[in-house]
Sequence to fold (499 residues):
Amino acid sequence: MAETEKPFPPGTYPVVVVGSGPGGLQTSYCLKRVGVKHAVISADDAPGGMFLRFPIFQRLISWTKLHAPVDRGARDYERYDWNSLIGDSPKLGGLVADQMEGKIYFPSRAEMQAGLAAFATKARIRVRWNCEWQSTRHEDGCFVVSTSDGEFKCKVLIVATGMTEPWKPQIPGLEAAPHYAETRFPKEYSGKSVFIVGKRNSAFELADGILAYAKQMFLASPRPPSISLMSFHVASARARYLQVYEDYVLGGGSVILDAAIQRVERHANGYTVHAAGTTKPGDLRFDVDEVIAATGFTTPLGDLRELGVATFNQDRLPAMTNYWESASVPGIYFAGSVSQGAVGLKKHGIPGVSGAVQGMRYNAKVLAEFVAQKHFGIVPSKPRVQVGDLGRFILGEATHSPVLWVQKSYLARSVTFDGNGVIDDGIVPLAEFVDAAGSDALAVVVETGPTGDIYPVVYVRTRGGVQEHVFPSNYLHDFEGPEHAAQLESILKIVQQAR
Fold:
């Protein structure tokens, strides 16, 4: 096929990936690496997905540190770069960093999109652009994806459309207020009172963006944010957004409330918002010039609900397994930010960040390997770990692995014990490891507890069940010292005795 022609003409493919944002691009790359043929289709005309439109005020909240203590492109650099996609070659690492000016370590939307485009080019990811997904049906054991270009048939459908469809709760009158996605230029709010419905990332982004212009600003949602934990959770509002809190405590004009919005009335001079206090009960009324619903997004699922795909979280996310497969329609998988629908165990406090690039990129690799093995019989070769090196290997992963550090409590490094020694099973969902039966095995994860302490947890699975071993934290985040080595050695002795 000539380069000027569209790739992936309508027809039959083992896998069809819908979407060309970070989730779709990373999934395509990983499928190619494990040898699964597939087609990628996208309604857009360039890589980037939601970053072609959001965030509204341009600057991301996830960081890319240009001058890290490790070389750019190395695996360890991924801990300092939460925005670039990942590959098996150093030339594919740190591509967002290559686009940045270096004045601030939060990339702009344009820099992020350029980094994704660079990855698509360098990794030779092909996409059928301007191909809109219109409907889906199940026929003769295959999924038939109807598009603006024709029909695609596949055994496995991977939906990587992101959470990009504006969503509002069913609050009377809120439908008359603009959504976050419809926010105007900051100067257009000059001298106005603005009521923002919500107190999560998008709400604080808007508040920060118009703080210098609005004469008064209100942010309200029923639950209080855990400010003390925000610095420990990479999916939380970054410190630069918390300037709104500073304005609030200093009486600068911002008011932050824990309140349930009961109804919104629109009239000629603006809006009246009626609310009920939650942490401090009481009826509240606000007469304001503007209301913005910073109430988040939902997953554009098309007609998949009619196909039987179950959802939760007020119909915003598809219900899925630990490997991101639809819980109700086998063969449909979800990649990208939608993969946050698999919540994992969340035993020790703060979960991973599947809803952001830094987490979803690792999910995509695990997903591709799982699809390859389950649906196409492609079994990856697994290296062995010398028994004498096992302790160093496990503690080294807990100390250095970007996967474990980013996807805390969700993804684990697993090894299996057999008659010939130890097999490295790679990265697996922790919940899957705990629930699975089979050979004796061990998995390590990194956890962040409710007070912010970071520590490894080792799970040992034997015929007698699963045992959990919590290791102490370390102020240098170094888990390779004698204290941790001694604890792991005693655990491994128990495993050997049990076998």
User: Anything to note?
Assistant: The mean pLDDT is 91.
